[in-house]
Amino acid sequence: MAKKLVGKVTPEEKNEIQTLFERKNGLSELAKILTADNAELYEKLVKDIGETGTKFQAWWDRMSAKYAWESSENGHWEINFDTNEIFLND
Question: Which end of the chain has less neighbouring CB within 10 Å, N or C?
Fold first, then answer.
C-alpha cells in the first residue's frame, strides 16, 4: 500500500476531526461491552454512533472539497495528528 502526502489542514480543522475520531473509537469500544438489555441506553448509543459517523464523513467531504486533495477509487485519506498532514493510502 503506497502512502502519498496530498495536503495539510489547519490546527483547528485537525482538532475537529481528532475529537470526532476519538469519540468514534470510544463509542465503538462501548458498543463492544454494552448489551441490548438496556434498550434505552443501547438506542442512544446506536444513534450517537450514527451521528458521529456522519459528522466524521462530512468533515472529510468538506476538507477534500476545500483543499481539492488527490483521491483514487480504492484509496482512502488518513491524517497525521502530529503534523496535520493528509495522506492518500492507495
Answer: N
